[in-house]
Amino acid sequence: MIYMFLAEGFEEVEAFAPLDILRRAGVEVETVSITDNQVVAGAHGIIVLADRILPAIDFDDAEMIILPGGLPGSTNLDACEDLRAGIQQLYDAGKPLAAICAAPQVYGHMGLLKGVKCTCYPGVESELLEAQPTGALVEVDGQFITGKGPAAAFEFGYTIAEKLVGKEKVQALRDGMIYSELKA
User: Lowest CB count within 10 Å: 18, 25, 30, 182, which one?
Assistant: First the structure.
């Protein structure tokens, strides 16, 4: 199971675009509120009903964690000790961890990005603690996939999907969603 964690103030496009892409690719993804309330408000007032709540998650079932950015969403994710414990569990197991925009700071504050090439929203680089920020739209290094910000949401989603289902299937998805025409 892939878990995407939502906190009050998350950046909606950074959650919904990758979520849509992954589900179209046939990947089982569930959204998880970091509180005991399934209702979560995004940074731009979009209210969503998460699939699950964090207290009901068993991180042993997790194949990957995805963190959308946004403020104060990223700050709220960073302050969630139960989420941080789950992240550490997946990190220790060598499983993939993804984050976009300001959310890579969660991994940075945990000391997980030491020496890792990554990207984030401009101005968040100092929160990545000993990482190697590149400024790229999307960056993959080891078990980490990071995205720069809202405009990177589709490419971030496709990159995650490619890791999970392969390049050929994702290329067909890009074509079917007319995304390939943007790069022409």
Answer: 182
Q: Are 68 and 147 in contact (CB under 8 A)?
A: no
Q: For the chain, percent helix, then strand, then coil, each to nearest 5?
A: 40, 20, 35
CA–CA separation, 11 and 9 (whole Å): 7
Taking the model in full, what pTM does it have? Answer: 0.97
Per-residue pLDDT tens over the stretch 170-179: 999 999 999 9
How far is C-alpha 65 from the geometric centre of its chain's CA atoms?
A: 7
Beta partners for residue 98, in sequence order: 66, 145
Which spans in the chain are helix H? 12-24, 73-78, 81-92, 104-109, 153-165, 167-176
Q: Do residues 43 and 76 lie in contact, with contact meaning Cβ atoms separated by under 8 Å? A: no
- Note the pLDDT tens digit of each residue in 15-37: 999 999 999 999 999 999 999 99
